[in-house]
Amino acid sequence: MQVPSQVEYERATSVPHALTLLGRPDHRVLAGGHSLIPMMKLRLAQPGVLVDINGLAELAYIKLDGGQLRIGALARHADLLDSAVAGDRFPIFHDAERVVADPIVRLWGTIGGSLCQADPSEDLSAVFAAVRATAVIRGQDGDREVPVREFHRGPYETVIGPGELLAEIRVPVTTGTGSAYEKVARRVGDWSVAAAAAVLQLDHGTVKQAGIGLTAVGAEHFVAAEAEDFLRGRPATEENFAQAATIAAEHCHPVADQRGPEDYKRHLVAELTTRALRRAAGRASHAAGKTA
Predict the structure, then answer these.
(1) Phi then psi for 81, rounded to 5 degrees?
(2) Residues 6 or more apart from 201 whose CB is under 8 A from it?
(3) In the list 81, 124, 162, 245, which could disulfide-bond 97, CB 3.0-4.6 Å?
(4) Per-residue pLDDT tens over the stretch 113-150
């Protein structure tokens, strides 16, 4: 089946208008549409009402505000890839966006749409989990903030309720921080076989804070929490990175599929996590050297 079922179409003209439309039952938000439309064609998704929010320019921005990087939900992948403001402080965003799909998808697909799709193989979900971002969810009664690590309830399910809309993602900016993303896919632009995101805040060579996100391997909330706990307070050494990576591989839950068996995916988790931690540490040291 390659034809969507019948659906009503509504185009939101403002955020309040969108919130009103989203209060209707059986709705789905249309942003970039690169995930939703194929699912509708296959009738894996059959919404009754399609709410198009592409005209909401007030949700398309990337900017620094005090100690936070603020990313509007309708910012496109290409915007994040091109953003010096984001890339200078978090190279992980540029790492990840370079391997998200292809240029056409990056020009049209949105950051908020990627998070809300909640696909287990989604790159940015692990990245935002690693940087400890906060999702700002807007409703008729105002905004509420949810840590990205609590945003996904499971595959294709988030905490966004009826009449609510993901409006913004906020990332805390800290000094002495480096970040990186490593991914293996079967071909360029494909979903991950496995991927690892790493964020390290260093203090004189010691890990003050660590963030490790994993993609496509069944990590709860896309996070390798046990590996983070191991690293915190330890020297940023190759030996400790390798041990943390082993812990990450032991605590994820990959599923054998056409992309590979479980043991292969665990091997990738260990290797990619080590690489990402190594690059993140190098970038943190370089950033510290520039400010010294």
Answers:
(1) -65, -35
(2) 174, 175, 176, 177, 207, 208, 209, 210, 284
(3) 81
(4) 999 999 999 999 999 999 999 999 999 999 999 999 99
pLDDT at 14 over 90: yes
> Quick one: tokens of 140?
């008729």
CA distance 260 to 192: 11
Q: How far apart are CA 247 and CA 228, in angstroms?
A: 9
**Cα 135–Cα 138–Cα 139 angle in degrees, nearest 5:** 145
Contacts of 203 (CB under 8 A, 6+ apart): 176
Q: Which of 70, 32, 63, 26 is nearest to 48 (CA)?
A: 26
Angstrom distance (rounded) from CA 157 to CA 275: 30
DSSP SS3 for 65: strand
Q: pLDDT digit string (tens) for 16-60? A: 999 999 988 888 899 988 788 888 888 888 888 999 999 999 999
User: What is the reported pLDDT for 34?
Assistant: 79
End-to-end Cα separation, the chain, in angstroms? 61
Cβ proximity of 53 and 29 under 8 Å: yes
* pTM for the model: 0.94
CA 93 to CA 283: how far, in whole Å? 13
